[in-house]
Amino acid sequence: MKIVIVGGGISGCVAYLALRKHLPRPPPPAEDHEFTIYEAYDANTNHDRSEQDTHSSTPIIGGGLGIAPNGLHVLERLDSDLLHEIVQGGYMVDHSNVKTKHGHLLMRLSSSTACLSPNNPLPMHLLGTSRHNLWQALHRRIPEDIIINKRVVKVTPNTTGPKTLTFADDSPPVSADVVIGADGLKSITKRALFPEATEDPYSPHYENLISIGGFLPTTSLPPTPPGSMNLLFSATGFFGYFYANSSPTSPHRSSPHHISPPGDTLAWWTTYSMPTPTPTPTPPDLTSPNLNLTTLTQHLHTRYSTWTDPTISTILPTITIKTIYPVFTSPPLPTFSSTGIILIGDAAHTLPPTSGQGASQALEDVEVLSLFLKHYLGISYHDENGGVSELEAVSRAGEEYTSLRRPRVQGILERAEKMQGLKRDSIGWLGGRVREWMMYLGMWLMGWFPGLVGWGMGLRGVVEYDLPWEVERVL
């Protein structure tokens, strides 16, 4: 089969590696599967532009992210050496401290889970890292001739045969037996699932929130507890920070099961209300003369002027903004696939940053899809009577993939939306103070009695997800 992946970011790179690993080879005289990744941006020549893009569909992306234990398990099953390389470029976190704007601890949440590997009893922690570190480790494992820098502008479906991809540069269209849409929030591939619609029926929804972030050297900052991710809430917004790398001398810096001494870099980010004007899904160019970073930085100083957390008080005067992007989510899609066109990652379900699961769910998507394709293509290739065609096998795999993935990501989205409301501004001074204290009381109670509100159970169910067992249960 000819398999095309649209998008060479995190999702697209993982998709190539997983499909290459799992897909069975067609029986002779058929040739092995042919892969091509089409990526709109050239990572080698367009570094500045792509660093501003925060979506998992784009090659080099700025800012930090967290990969939860469930996502790390996917990487471990894919390639243990790959996992260790990614971990070495980040920092392992075993707990999150939820605090007031003054730095008072409200609750402590474990970021660890029992290891699902039968050969390793140690817990798996959460990885805090840069998006570029993750993408780079994936990208270097892909042959150069697999990735072609072309912008796909249309995917034309075909229920009985190859699909057609059209390009922005007017070069000749190409055909593919399978198209994997890893092209993010504004997915072109998604439109092919709904060919009758004249406009995108499931366009992204702006959440009236904006996120800004960057990195700082730790030399001048107050010490942060090792192994912690710190999340601070108030009526005027949200602020988070964590170590972004481990000490280069740590013997366990590549282990997802150990907390190493921190390195020299701290990642920070803040999210707050910005109802108007509604920005576009494309993050602004930080080098644009129309974007005044000085004014934006001063705005952050004003917004958080009453916060007394020692780390934030030290961060604010020295911050350099590296990423700025509006928060979008995508409406639930009725399906993630249609006769050989399959969406993964942000193209299928754009989760808000509050979920802490954006990258991990993209990783899960890829493994689930790969395992279903492996199973049904295996049946097709070994069916001596020719009763199941490749197209039928791919379609069945896509249906099972959608059925398993949609409920899971929808549940994560619903939980994230509840938490996301805590990052929005309150109206009025009195209303803000009342809401702030009620929020703090609720968080404190959740810390002491997580079972009463289902918080602990819900979070545990997300990170302790046994993906191979779930796939096997369906099969």
TrEMBL record:
InterPro entries for this protein: FAD-bd, FAD-dep_Monooxygenase_BioMet, FAD/NAD-bd_sf
Keyword terms: FAD, Flavoprotein, Membrane, Monooxygenase, Oxidoreductase, Transmembrane, Transmembrane helix
Classification lineage: Eukaryota, Fungi, Dikarya, Ascomycota, Pezizomycotina
Family affiliation: Belongs to the paxM FAD-dependent monooxygenase family.
4Fe-4S keyword on record: no
TM region positions: 437-457
One protein family per Pfam: FAD_binding_3
MF GO annotations: FAD binding; monooxygenase activity
Organism expressing this protein natively: Aspergillus sclerotioniger CBS 115572
UniProt entry tagged with the keyword Transmembrane: yes
Name of the protein in question: FAD/NAD(P)-binding domain-containing protein
Organism superkingdom: Eukaryota
Occurrences of domain FAD-binding (ranges): 337-374
Residue stretches in coiled coil: none
